[in-house]
Design a protein that fits this description.
It is a single chain. This protein is α+β, with helices and mostly antiparallel strands. It has one domain (5-86). Helix content is 41%, strand content 11%. It has helices at residues 5-17, 21-30, 74-86; strands spanning 41-44, 52-54, 66-68. It has a 3-stranded antiparallel sheet, with no helix packed on it. A hairpin with a 7-residue loop joins strand 1 (41-44) and strand 2. It is globular, with a radius of gyration of 13 Å. 13% of the residues are buried.
């Protein structure tokens, strides 16, 4: 069953709510990156159904709406992963 745009937005906000103020600042700075390093893990806030993804090759995703693992703490990353698993 496809999710409505409003439920996807709520989920995006749920994920963002897991970040601390300091992490939000780091994520905002990460958005200015032109590309991700190979092997870097990230969550695409516009495609939460894809779950945790890993950068492979040179086809860099748009970094605007990504949470990159290196931009958040270990506990926050674990909370994001658990939230994604819960759907």
């Amino acid at each position: 069953m496809a999710r409505s745009a409003s439920s996807a937005q709520i989920e995006k906000e749920d994920i963002l709510a897991l970040l601390t103020d300091a992490e939000i600042g780091k994520v905002s700075m990460a958005e200015t990156k032109k590309s991700l390093a190979r092997g870097e893990q990230f969550v695409d806030l516009d495609d939460l159904a894809a779950g945790v993804q890993m950068m492979e090759g040179s086809g860099a995703p748009d970094t605007h709406d990504l949470i990159v693992r290196s931009a958040v703490g270990t506990k926050t990353w674990s909370n994001i992963v658990e939230r994604l698993k819960a759907g």
